[in-house]
Amino acid sequence: MQLGHLSWPETTAYDKEVPMGLPSQKYINFIANLMPIYEGEQVGNRYCARSLRDGTLLLPHQDEDGGRDDFITIWWQGDASRASDAMANMVASNAVTEYVQQATIGKPPEYTTALLLHLAQHFEYKTGDTLYLPYAQEDQDIEALIKIIAIAKKAGIQLALEGLKKLVFL
Q1: What are 13-47's pLDDT values in tens digits?
Q2: CA dihedral in degrees (94, 98, 99, 101; nearest 10)?
Q3: Which end of the chain is more exposed for a tag (fewer CB within 10 A), N or C?
Q4: Could you tell me the pTM of the whole model?
Q5: CA distances (Å), origin 152, targets 11, 28, 111, 163
Q6: Which residue ranges make up each domain of the chain?
Protein backbone atom coordinates (compact mmCIF):
# COMPACT_ATOMS: atom_id res chain seq x y z
CA MET A 1 0.00 0.00 0.00
CA GLN A 2 1.22 3.49 -0.72
CA LEU A 3 0.17 6.85 0.63
CA GLY A 4 2.00 9.61 -1.19
CA HIS A 5 5.67 8.70 -1.00
CA LEU A 6 5.06 6.40 1.99
CA SER A 7 4.53 2.69 1.56
CA TRP A 8 4.29 -0.50 3.57
CA PRO A 9 3.85 -4.14 2.56
CA GLU A 10 0.65 -5.19 0.83
CA THR A 11 0.48 -8.42 2.81
CA THR A 12 -0.33 -7.03 6.24
CA ALA A 13 -1.59 -9.32 8.95
CA TYR A 14 -4.65 -7.22 9.76
CA ASP A 15 -6.34 -8.14 6.47
CA LYS A 16 -6.67 -11.87 7.21
CA GLU A 17 -10.30 -13.02 7.32
CA VAL A 18 -11.58 -15.32 10.06
CA PRO A 19 -15.06 -16.70 10.77
CA MET A 20 -17.62 -14.63 12.68
CA GLY A 21 -19.42 -15.88 15.77
CA LEU A 22 -20.79 -13.62 18.47
CA PRO A 23 -21.52 -9.98 17.57
CA SER A 24 -18.30 -8.83 19.27
CA GLN A 25 -16.29 -11.33 17.21
CA LYS A 26 -15.55 -8.62 14.63
CA TYR A 27 -13.40 -6.78 17.19
CA ILE A 28 -11.50 -9.93 18.13
CA ASN A 29 -10.88 -10.73 14.46
CA PHE A 30 -9.43 -7.28 13.86
CA ILE A 31 -7.17 -7.34 16.92
CA ALA A 32 -6.01 -10.92 16.28
CA ASN A 33 -4.59 -9.80 12.95
CA LEU A 34 -2.34 -7.13 14.49
CA MET A 35 0.69 -9.39 14.36
CA PRO A 36 3.23 -9.59 15.96
CA ILE A 37 1.49 -7.91 18.90
CA TYR A 38 -1.45 -10.34 18.87
CA GLU A 39 -2.25 -13.61 17.19
CA GLY A 40 -5.45 -15.53 16.64
CA GLU A 41 -6.11 -18.62 18.69
CA GLN A 42 -8.97 -21.09 19.08
CA VAL A 43 -10.03 -21.50 22.73
CA GLY A 44 -12.85 -23.98 23.10
CA ASN A 45 -15.41 -23.01 20.50
CA ARG A 46 -14.32 -19.35 20.33
CA TYR A 47 -11.75 -17.64 18.14
CA CYS A 48 -9.72 -15.27 20.34
CA ALA A 49 -6.80 -12.86 20.20
CA ARG A 50 -3.80 -13.56 22.42
CA SER A 51 -1.26 -10.90 23.33
CA LEU A 52 2.20 -12.15 22.49
CA ARG A 53 3.65 -9.82 25.11
CA ASP A 54 1.96 -11.12 28.24
CA GLY A 55 -0.44 -13.89 27.19
CA THR A 56 -3.60 -11.86 27.88
CA LEU A 57 -6.51 -13.40 25.99
CA LEU A 58 -9.26 -11.34 24.34
CA LEU A 59 -12.50 -13.22 23.80
CA PRO A 60 -15.83 -12.33 22.20
CA HIS A 61 -18.23 -11.19 24.91
CA GLN A 62 -21.03 -13.63 25.67
CA ASP A 63 -23.99 -11.61 26.88
CA GLU A 64 -26.77 -13.88 28.10
CA ASP A 65 -29.25 -11.01 27.87
CA GLY A 66 -28.45 -10.44 24.21
CA GLY A 67 -27.58 -6.84 25.04
CA ARG A 68 -24.38 -5.02 24.20
CA ASP A 69 -22.23 -6.31 21.38
CA ASP A 70 -19.51 -3.69 21.79
CA PHE A 71 -17.79 -5.35 24.75
CA ILE A 72 -15.13 -8.03 24.78
CA THR A 73 -13.98 -10.27 27.62
CA ILE A 74 -10.38 -10.10 28.78
CA TRP A 75 -8.59 -12.94 30.58
CA TRP A 76 -5.60 -11.16 32.09
CA GLN A 77 -2.40 -13.09 31.39
CA GLY A 78 -4.67 -15.82 29.99
CA ASP A 79 -6.22 -16.59 33.40
CA ALA A 80 -9.98 -17.19 33.17
CA SER A 81 -10.34 -16.50 36.90
CA ARG A 82 -9.04 -12.97 36.31
CA ALA A 83 -11.63 -11.96 33.73
CA SER A 84 -13.15 -8.58 33.05
CA ASP A 85 -15.19 -6.97 30.30
CA ALA A 86 -14.19 -3.81 28.47
CA MET A 87 -15.46 -1.69 25.61
CA ALA A 88 -14.12 -3.28 22.45
CA ASN A 89 -13.17 -0.05 20.71
CA MET A 90 -11.07 1.03 23.70
CA VAL A 91 -9.16 -2.25 23.76
CA ALA A 92 -8.73 -2.07 19.98
CA SER A 93 -7.49 1.53 20.26
CA ASN A 94 -4.73 0.42 22.62
CA ALA A 95 -3.89 -2.56 20.40
CA VAL A 96 -3.68 -0.42 17.26
CA THR A 97 -1.49 2.25 18.85
CA GLU A 98 0.81 -0.46 20.23
CA TYR A 99 0.98 -2.07 16.79
CA VAL A 100 1.72 1.25 15.08
CA GLN A 101 4.46 2.05 17.60
CA GLN A 102 6.22 -1.23 16.89
CA ALA A 103 5.62 -1.21 13.13
CA THR A 104 7.02 2.28 12.65
CA ILE A 105 10.23 2.14 14.63
CA GLY A 106 12.80 4.13 12.67
CA LYS A 107 10.23 5.48 10.21
CA PRO A 108 9.42 9.16 9.68
CA PRO A 109 6.45 10.68 11.55
CA GLU A 110 4.48 10.93 8.30
CA TYR A 111 4.64 7.17 7.91
CA THR A 112 3.44 6.66 11.48
CA THR A 113 0.53 9.03 10.94
CA ALA A 114 -0.42 7.44 7.63
CA LEU A 115 -0.41 3.94 9.12
CA LEU A 116 -2.45 5.02 12.15
CA LEU A 117 -5.04 6.75 9.99
CA HIS A 118 -5.18 3.79 7.60
CA LEU A 119 -5.76 1.35 10.46
CA ALA A 120 -8.43 3.63 11.96
CA GLN A 121 -10.27 3.62 8.63
CA HIS A 122 -9.79 -0.12 8.25
CA PHE A 123 -11.14 -0.69 11.78
CA GLU A 124 -14.23 1.35 10.98
CA TYR A 125 -14.72 -0.59 7.74
CA LYS A 126 -14.35 -3.99 9.45
CA THR A 127 -16.33 -3.26 12.63
CA GLY A 128 -18.57 -0.28 11.94
CA ASP A 129 -17.08 1.34 15.07
CA THR A 130 -14.39 3.96 15.54
CA LEU A 131 -11.12 3.86 17.44
CA TYR A 132 -10.65 6.19 20.36
CA LEU A 133 -7.83 8.43 19.20
CA PRO A 134 -8.45 11.82 20.80
CA TYR A 135 -5.15 13.18 19.51
CA ALA A 136 -6.08 12.25 15.94
CA GLN A 137 -9.52 13.83 15.69
CA GLU A 138 -8.89 15.22 12.24
CA ASP A 139 -6.39 14.10 9.64
CA GLN A 140 -5.47 17.70 8.90
CA ASP A 141 -4.62 18.39 12.54
CA ILE A 142 -2.10 15.54 12.64
CA GLU A 143 -0.57 16.47 9.30
CA ALA A 144 -0.29 20.12 10.36
CA LEU A 145 1.38 19.12 13.63
CA ILE A 146 3.89 16.95 11.78
CA LYS A 147 4.69 19.84 9.43
CA ILE A 148 5.20 22.17 12.39
CA ILE A 149 7.53 19.69 14.05
CA ALA A 150 9.48 19.27 10.81
CA ILE A 151 9.79 23.05 10.41
CA ALA A 152 10.91 23.36 14.03
CA LYS A 153 13.61 20.76 13.45
CA LYS A 154 14.85 22.46 10.28
CA ALA A 155 14.47 26.15 11.02
CA GLY A 156 14.59 26.28 14.78
CA ILE A 157 11.94 26.52 17.43
CA GLN A 158 11.62 30.33 17.34
CA LEU A 159 10.77 30.44 13.64
CA ALA A 160 8.30 27.57 14.05
CA LEU A 161 6.60 29.36 16.97
CA GLU A 162 6.30 32.55 14.92
CA GLY A 163 4.72 30.60 12.07
CA LEU A 164 2.32 28.89 14.45
CA LYS A 165 1.32 32.23 16.00
CA LYS A 166 0.53 33.61 12.56
CA LEU A 167 -1.44 30.52 11.65
CA VAL A 168 -3.50 30.53 14.88
CA PHE A 169 -4.14 34.26 15.11
CA LEU A 170 -5.13 34.96 11.48
Answers
A1: 444 444 456 778 999 999 999 999 999 999 988 89
A2: 140
A3: C
A4: 0.69
A5: 35, 40, 18, 10
A6: 8-137
